[in-house]
């Protein structure tokens, strides 16, 4: 069906097609990404489990898990939300449905190719920018540029006077991500070496997190929460405080990832101070959304999309409290390189960000398909598998990280740390597997929604209807 | 139309983002430029070659197109002995030089001048190949290490040096680091002792000039296993490493490291094919207490991936 539309006239493509393909692609990649995560975790807990083949070696799969989740699930869910939120907020239609479909096509092809090559070991050898540079160029010019053009042109052709905060984030973040990809991959493109390469690797890693994954996830909540609750956003001005604080402060702390590398000390101190300033946009965001919920808190319990969304917002509180302080010298020396950081990374991507995107994908697919969710029971199962699995993962890895931290400062032989961590490695695997199971349920539920969900009458929202099943 | 918020907004985003790029990119680039290559930095770039990972010369990332490090105990031309032995970095014809040879400013002030004037690296020609060594000299009263192009200075030819040293003195360092990258060793083993508390166990953190010309640095961020930057200084036994790579639980029962037996390939050093199935069942019998000794670990073939990996670990990580 995608193939048919790729070569159709733009006017003949039904509105929302790009949203639907993006939405299902993102859920598919979520299943793949968390499945790989669960498999990898099993290998850390039971090293002799699947052994003897290069194909299923931990070192060949770890980066595939990371990039499938970041570029597959999270970024495609962003693409999906951009395809339906940007036009809705501009009171117009998507600038080009056809370009949107080409974007999702290029994205799936490019990412699959890149991940297969990575799995085979064809890598740039740089964390987070593992993809080889030809694939990076596909991402920049085949995926991000068309996505950006579509979003920017839709904003330019809006039929509202102002630009809502969500669209500010969408437009700016795509632009910044393109720059980040170009600069971050310049060591591969121009063979920059040594400390420059090391620094740019983490410059890239930080900015993908700080200028794409967390702010766009927050931008999504600025749409979903007012839309679901019917309350207007508490303050658009505080939203702008969030937006401008991200641009000004959070594009600078890259070197706090390399606090113990031989980088210039002024750079580390600067990054550390700027890193604490994440609390300004973070408090602005959380307060703004939670105040928007005023009078509608029952929806946190009763409405599945709100449940996902608010869970994500609440997880932003520990996320930013950890994030703001763990990168200062006072704390970083203890937790750097330990499981604590792994727990924190999953709190950002699997906790805060993924819950917000899941809410937006649930809501968006129902709105665009004009069908009510197939089964609330399955959606609740998904939610509880997701949140319990995530909490098991997060807590066990945090404990493991504190053990590692103590081990390194008290100079415990490393193997004793490995032994002490073992129960938490098993817990990590169990938690990850629960998340994966929940996502399989979600894919089934969404598929059945597209086929058999109750049709939503014109002029109504899916979440206003009662469940019939 | 008076005030247009998107125009103001776009300009403000450009200004703020541009400002932060100036601070985070332009600022440190000045500091990075001042890094003077140390012996470690020169050794790394000369033994690793132009780039590790995906590249024109090695598109499948299997370690093609890399130089060979050889340990020389006597001059291949005059026969004069070296005590202790020295390292020579052999670039056969067509192998791309390490970044500092062509982009001399990467070497840092002092090292660049000596390498060009005394070491004659400007005369190195890729189509004929070259042999490099590292020498010590003085520049403006400071002791620095610099690169010597022995092909230009002493007339050493790559093939001649390789032959004089013999296979037992060849170290496939560049290929070894390629294996380290593709097999994902660095997902658990960092190459970055921390400045705060790692001195006791993992040794000194790297210096500013320790990685000029190295790509990628592969510091790693998630330490699930010991740091390896100085591992060969703690344990330099090839026998121990052979067993540990084949099955880490032969030497460390509680290790969670994967088995890297597949890096041995099909045959051992004598050309005998390796029976992995039998080895695993014998090992299972040993684990279950049915035999007293574990099965013998096959000795890796000369061109096996694990030999290159051990070459890199034992030669570079000191």
Can you describe this structure in just a few lines?
The complex is a heterodimer of chains A (469) and B (318). Chain A is mostly helical and 469 residues long. Helix content of chain A is 75%, strand content 0%.
What does this structure look like?
The complex is a heterodimer of chains A (469) and B (318). With 469 residues, chain A is mainly α. Chain A folds into three domains: 1-163; 166-367, Cytochrome C Oxidase, Chain A (Up-down Bundle); 371-450. Chain A is built from 17 helices and no strands. Chain A has helices spanning 2-6, 17-45, 58-89, 97-120, 133-156, 165-184, 186-190, 194-229, 236-249, 265-276, 279-292, 298-302, 304-326, 329-335, 339-369, 376-409, 414-452. In chain A, helix 3 crosses helix 8 (194-229) and helix 3 (58-89) crosses helix 15 (339-369). Chain A starts with a helix and ends in a 17-residue tail after the last helix. Chain B is an alpha+beta fold and 318 residues long. Chain B has two domains: 39-172, no CATH class; 180-316, Cytochrome Bc1 Complex, Chain D, domain 2 (Orthogonal Bundle), CATH 1.10.760. Chain B is 36% helix and 12% strand. Chain B is built from twelve helices and five strands. Chain B has a five-stranded antiparallel beta sheet with strand order 4-3-2-1-5. In chain B, strand 3 and strand 4 (142-149) form a beta hairpin. In chain B, helix 7 (173-182) packs across helix 12. The relative contact order of chain B is 0.13. The model of chain B has no long low-confidence stretch (mean pLDDT 94). At the A-B interface, helix 2, helix 3, helix 6, helix 8 and helix 9 of A face helix 1 of B.
Notable features of this structure?
heterodimer; A: 469 residues; Cytochrome C Oxidase, Chain A; B: 318 residues; alpha+beta; Cytochrome Bc1 Complex, Chain D, domain 2; 2 domains; 5-stranded antiparallel β-sheet; 12 helices; 5 strands
């Amino acid at each position: 069906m995608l193939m048919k539309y790729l070569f159709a006239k733009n006017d003949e493509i039904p509105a929302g097609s790009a949203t639907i393909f993006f939405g299902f692609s993102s859920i598919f990649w979520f299943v793949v990404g968390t499945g790989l995560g669960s498999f990898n975790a099993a290998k850390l807990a039971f090293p002799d489990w699947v052994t003897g083949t290069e194909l299923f070696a931990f070192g060949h799969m770890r980066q595939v898990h990371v990039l499938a989740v970041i570029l597959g699930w999270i970024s495609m869910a962003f693409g999906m939300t951009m395809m339906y939120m940007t036009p809705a907020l501009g009171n117009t239609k998507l600038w080009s449905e056809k370009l949107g479909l080409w974007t999702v096509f290029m994205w799936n092809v490019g990412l699959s190719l890149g991940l297969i090559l990575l799995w085979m070991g064809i890598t740039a050898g740089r964390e987070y920018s593992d993809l080889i540079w030809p694939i990076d160029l596909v991402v920049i010019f085949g995926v991000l540029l068309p996505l950006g053009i579509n979003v920017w042109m839709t904003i330019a052709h809006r039929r509202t006077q102002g630009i809502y905060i969500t669209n500010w984030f969408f437009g700016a973040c795509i632009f910044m991500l393109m720059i980040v990809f170009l600069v971050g991959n310049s060591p591969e493109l121009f063979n920059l070496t040594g400390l420059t390469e090391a620094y740019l690797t983490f410059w890239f890693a930080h900015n993908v997190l700080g200028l794409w994954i967390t702010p766009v996830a927050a931008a999504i909540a600025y749409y979903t929460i007012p839309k679901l609750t019917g309350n207007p956003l508490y303050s658009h001005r505080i939203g702008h405080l969030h937006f401008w604080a991200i641009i000004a402060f959070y594009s600078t702390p890259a070197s706090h990832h390399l606090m113990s590398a031989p980088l210039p000390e002024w750079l580390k101190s600067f990054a550390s101070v700027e890193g604490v300033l994440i609390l300004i946009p973070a408090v602005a965001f959380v307060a703004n959304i939670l105040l928007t919920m005023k009078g509608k808190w029952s929806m946190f319990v009763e409405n599945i999309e709100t449940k996902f969304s608010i869970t994500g917002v609440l997880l932003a509180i520990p996320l930013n409290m950890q994030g703001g302080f763990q990168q200062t010298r006072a704390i970083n020396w203890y937790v750097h390189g330990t499981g604590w950081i792994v727990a924190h990374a999953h709190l950002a991507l699997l906790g805060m960000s993924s819950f917000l995107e899941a809410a937006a994908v649930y809501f968006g697919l129902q709105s665009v398909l004009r069908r009510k969710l197939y089964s609330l029971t399955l959606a609740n199962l998904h939610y509880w598998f997701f949140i319990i699995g995530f909490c098991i993962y997060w807590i066990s890895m945090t404990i493991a990280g504190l053990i590692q931290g103590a081990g390194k400062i008290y100079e415990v032989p490393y193997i004793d740390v490995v032994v002490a961590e073992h129960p938490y490695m098993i817990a990590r695997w169990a938690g990850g597997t629960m998340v994966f199971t929940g996502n399989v349920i979600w894919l089934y539920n969404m598929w059945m929604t597209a086929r058999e969900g109750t049709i939503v009458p014109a002029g109504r929202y899916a979440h206003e209807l009662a469940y019939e099943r | 139309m008076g005030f247009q918020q998107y125009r103001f907004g776009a300009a403000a985003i450009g200004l703020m983002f541009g400002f932060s790029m100036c601070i985070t990119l332009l600022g440190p680039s000045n500091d990075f430029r001042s890094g003077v290559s140390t012996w470690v930095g020169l050794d790394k770039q000369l033994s690793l070659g132009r780039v590790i990972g995906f590249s024109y010369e090695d598109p499948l990332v299997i370690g093609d197109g890399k130089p060979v490090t050889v340990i020389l105990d006597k001059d291949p031309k005059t026969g004069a002995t070296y005590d202790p032995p020295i390292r020579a970095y052999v670039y056969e014809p067509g192998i791309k030089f390490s970044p500092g040879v062509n982009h001399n400013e990467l070497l840092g002030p002092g090292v660049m001048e000596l390498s060009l004037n005394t070491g004659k690296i400007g005369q190195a020609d890729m189509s004929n190949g070259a042999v490099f060594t590292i020498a010590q000299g003085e520049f403006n009263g400071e002791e620095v290490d610099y690169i010597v192009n022995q092909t230009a200075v002493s007339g050493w030819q790559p093939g001649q040096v390789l032959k004089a040293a013999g296979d037992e003195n060849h170290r496939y360092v560049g290929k070894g680091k390629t294996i380290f990258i593709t097999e994902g060793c660095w997902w658990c083993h960092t190459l970055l002792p921390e400045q705060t508390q790692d001195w006791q166990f993992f040794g000194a953190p790297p210096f500013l000039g320790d990685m000029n010309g190295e790509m990628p640095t592969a510091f790693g961020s998630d330490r699930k296993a010991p740091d390896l930057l100085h591992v060969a200084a703690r344990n330099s036994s090839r026998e121990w490493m052979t067993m540990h790579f084949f099955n880490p639980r032969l030497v460390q029962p509680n290790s969670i490291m994967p088995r890297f037996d597949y890096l041995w390939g099909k045959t051992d050093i004598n050309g005998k094919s390796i029976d992995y199935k039998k080895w695993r069942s014998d090992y299972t019998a040993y684990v279950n207490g049915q035999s007293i000794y574990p099965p013998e670990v096959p000795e890796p073939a000369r061109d096996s991936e694990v030999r290159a990996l051990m070459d890199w670990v034992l030669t570079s990580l000191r």
